[in-house]
Amino acid sequence: MSTVSLVWGILALSGMLIGLIPCLGALNWLNIPFSGVGLIVSAVALSKEPPHQRGGAVGGTVLCSLGLVLSLIRLLLGGGVL
């Protein structure tokens, strides 16, 4: 489960980076819910995994939250959120 959350975080951060390209900023509207679901999956993985196997879940949590926050900031700066 922690591997799934880590891969989800990598995909969320990749989607955010693609959304930084001009004319592709609307991708951030899809990335925000994707990152939110990734945070939920990461939280479940953190609660289910034993303490010595939580590295992937922690990485997924960090990457999903970073993708979520940066996507929101990009939409705010670009005028996508009124």
Kindly summarize this structure in a few lines.
By secondary structure, the protein is mostly helical. 78% of the residues lie in helices and 0% in strands.
Topology summary:
Layout: H1 2-19, H2 27-48, H3 55-78
Task: Give an account of the 3D structure.
With 82 residues, this protein is an all-alpha fold. The protein has a domain at 28-76. Helix content is 78%, strand content 0%. It has helices spanning 2-19, 27-48, 55-78. The protein starts with a helix and ends with a helix.
Q: Average pLDDT across residues?
A: 90
Low-confidence parts = none
Q: Which term fits the overall shape?
A: elongated
Order of H and E elements:
HHH
Biggest pleated sheet: none
Q: What does the radius of gyration come to? A: 13 Å
Provide a count of the helices: 3
* Category by helix and strand content: mainly alpha
Question: Kindly, what is the distance between the CA atoms of the first and last residues, rounded to a whole number of angstroms?
Answer: 37 Å
The helical percent reads over 70%
